Amino acid sequence: MSQMIFRPWEKAVANIKLVPKLILLMVFSTLLLVAKQLWDANTFRDSVSEVTEAQSHSLALRSAEMAKELLKEENGTALLQRVVSRENATSEMNQYIYFTNRKTGEVLAHPSILNFDGLNLPLENGRMLTEVIRNTQGEFTYHLANEGRHGIAVPVGNTDWLSISSQPDSAAEQYYNAYLIQVAWQTALMIVAFMVILLGGSNLMLRQINCLIDGMRNMAQKNLSVPVVMDCKDEFGELARELEKSRIQLSSVIKTQRHSSEELSDMAEVMSISMDETRESAKEQFGEIDQLASAMSEMTSTVQDVAGHARAASQATEASREQVANGQQYVSNTISTINKLSDDIRESASVVNQVEERVEKISSVVVTIQGISEQTNLLALNAAIEAARAGEMGRGFAVVADEVRNLAQNTQKATLEIQDMITQLQSSAQQAVGLMEQSVVEAVESVESVSKAGEELNLIVEQISQINDMNFHIATAAEQQASVADEMNQNLTNVRELVEASVTVVTELAETSESMQGNAEQLDLKIKEFAV
C-alpha cells in the first residue's frame, strides 16, 4: 500500500483546493514584493539623505575655500557678494550659500533669501542662530525650529567669516517621493503581470486536473472506452499517460475475463451433467458392495470367535507360566537378599570390632585426662598454700586456685563416669559380635534351603512352557485364519467407504458445479457492465 504521511502544516495546506492555493500564493507573493520595494525605498531615502548632507558639506567647504582667496583682495567683500548671488542663482532644490562674520554680524547673502534664512531665528534646541554663530568655533550644523531647513557652517580660513550652506529638510524627501512613485508604478505593473501569468497558469492547471478527473470518473463508472489524452510533458501529462496505460490494461483484463467467463459457464454446465451421471453410477456400486461387506463381516465374526477361544487358552497357560516364573524370581530375590543380609552382618561385625578398638583408644585418652586433672588438683592445692602464705595480697589468687581445684575435681568425676560408660560399651560390643556371627551361620543355612526350592520351581516352569508352546501354535493358526478373514472384511469395508466417499465427493462436485455455474453467470453479468 502506497500511503503519503503529512506533517501537521502540510496536512493543513493539502486540505486547501488548488484555486485557493494559487490565490494565497498570489497574495503572499504580492505582499513580499511590496515589502521588498518598500525596503528598497527606505534604503534609497537613507542613501539620498546621506548624499544631500555630503553635497551640502562639500558646497560649504568649496565656498569657504573660494571666500578665503577673495577676502585677501582689497574689495574682497564685494567680490564675495557677487559670488554668493551667482551661486544661489544657479542652485538646485532650494539650496543656498551665504557668509556671516562672527564679530560684526555682517551677512552676505542673496537678497531673495535674506529674510528667509536670517540669523535671528530659533533653533530646534531652543537657542538662537546668532548665539550659536558667535559662540561656536569650527564647523557645526544647525536645524531651524520653524523654517524646515538645516545648515552646515564651515570657518573661512583663520578669519571671522563662516561659510554656511543651507538647504530645506524636504530635499531628501523630494527624491524619496519621486523614487517611491516610480517604484509604485513598477510594482503595480509587476503585480498585474504576475496575476495575468498566475491566472493563465492556474486556468491551464485546472483544465488539466479536470481532464484527469473526467478520466478517473469514467473509469469509476465502468466506462473504459473513453481514452485519456493530454499532449504535454509536465507532471499532469505524465499522470495522464499513466492513467491511460491503466485504462488500456484494465480494458484488456476485462476483455480477457469476459471471454474466460463465457468458457467457464459452458464448462460448468457440461460438468454438472457429467456429475449427475457419475453420482447415479456410484450409488448402484455402493449398494452391491454393502451386501458383500455384510456377508464377509458375519464370516469374520465366526473365525474371530475360534481364534478368541484359542487365544484365551494360550493366555491362561502363559499366565500360569508367568506366575511360576514370578515365584522363581521371588526365590532368587530371597536368596540374593539373604546373601546380602549375611554380607551386611559381616560388615556390621567388622564395624563393631572397629568401634571396640576405638573405645579402647578413647579409654587410654580418658586415663591421660584423669592424670592431667590430678596434676591440676595438686597444682591448685600448692597455689592455695602459697596464696595463704602471701596473706591479704594473695587472697584473689587463692580464690582462683580454689576454682581451679574444684574444676579439676569435677573433671576427675566426669572421667570416672566416662570410664564406666566405656567399659559397658565394650561389653555390649562383644555381645553384638557374638550374635552377628551366629546370624551369619543361620543365613548360610537359609540360602541352601531356598536354593533347593528354586530348583523345583525351574522344573515346573519347563513343563508349563511346553504346554504354552502347544497352545501358542493352536492360537497362531486360528489367528492367521481370523487375520485373513478380517483383512478381507477390512478391504471390503475400505472399498465401501471409498465408494461412499466417492458418492459424497461427486455430490459435492455436482453442487460445486452448480454453484460455479451460478458464479460464472454473475461474473459474466458484472463484466458486461464495463464498456470496453
TrEMBL record:
Residues 203-255 form the HAMP domain. Pfam families: MCPsignal (PF00015). Residues 260-496 form the Methyl-accepting transducer domain. The chain crosses the membrane at residues 183-206. GO terms for cellular component: plasma membrane. Residues 447-509 form the T-SNARE coiled-coil homology domain. Keywords: Cell inner membrane, Cell membrane, Membrane, Transducer, Transmembrane, Transmembrane helix. This is Methyl-accepting chemotaxis protein. It comes from Grimontia sedimenti. The lineage of its organism: Bacteria, Pseudomonadati, Pseudomonadota, Gammaproteobacteria, Vibrionales.
